[in-house]
Amino acid sequence: MTGPAEDDAPLLTLMPDRLGLPRGRSALPESEVAASQRGRILQAVTEEVAARGYAATTVQHVISRARVSRTAFYDQFADKQDAFAHAHLEASEQLLDLIRQRVAACADEDWRRRLRVGVEAYLAGFEGAPSYAVSFMVELRGAGPRLLDQRDRIVDRHARNFSRLAEAAAAEDPGVRRPAKLEVIGVIGAADELATRAIRATEPGSAPRLGRLVAPIVAIYEAVLLQS
Fold first, then answer.
1. Taking the C-alpha atoms of 75, 38, 89 and 212 in order, what is their torsion angle to the nearest 10 degrees?
2. pLDDT tens across 65-120, in order?
3. Is there a domain that residue 51 lies in?
4. For the chain, what is the domain count?
5. Is 11 a domain residue?
6. Which domain does 150 fall in, by range?
7. pTM
8. Model confidence over 32-42: pLDDT tens digits?
9. What CATH number is attached to the domain comprising 133?
10. CA–CA separation, 146 and 224 (whole Å)
C-alpha cells in the first residue's frame, strides 16, 4: 500500500485553498472570506473532535482553533453538531472521490487489481489524515442520530460503487457473482470495523498504520464476489 509519506500520497483536508486573510478590512470578496472561514471551521471541528472527543468539544474550542469569531461560526452553522455533520459529509465526498480516481486510473487492469487499488485508497486516505480517521471512524458513532443516518447514506453510496465494480467483474469473469445490496453493506461494515479497531489502537497524535489491513479486507470483498 502506498504510504502517506510518499510524494503522491493523498491528504484529505477541509481547509480552503487560500489559508490566510489580510489583517484589517479584507480586500477579498465576502464570498471568499466566508469560504475561508467555513473551511477553517470544518477543519477545526474535525481536529478538535479527534483531540478531545465529540462530547468534550465545544464551539469555543472550534472557533479558537479556526481563528474565527463566534458570529462567523453561527453565520454558517447552527451548532457543533451541524458543523461536524458538514465536515463529515465533505470529508466522505473527498474519500469517495479518491477511491474512484484511483480505481479509474487502473481501469484497463483486471477486477482483482481494481478492487485492491480501491481498498488501498480507502485506507491510505485515513493514514494520511489521522484526525479524519479518529473523528469520522471512532467519534462519529457517539455524535447522534443525524450523523449515524448520514453515515448510512455514505455507506449506501459506497455500496453502489462496489456493486458497479461487481457488475464489471462479472462481465469479465464467469466466476464472479453479483452480490445483493445487504451483502455489500455487510462487507463494507466488516472493512470499516477492521479499520476502526486499528485506528482506536493507535497512539494519540500518531498516524494509524493500516497497510496490514489491505490483504484481509480484499479477501472479505473477494469472498462475497466469488462463487463457491
1. -150
2. 999 999 999 999 999 999 999 999 999 999 999 999 999 999 999 999 999 999 99
3. no
4. 1
5. no
6. 80-225
7. 0.87
8. 888 889 999 99
9. 1.10.357.10
10. 30
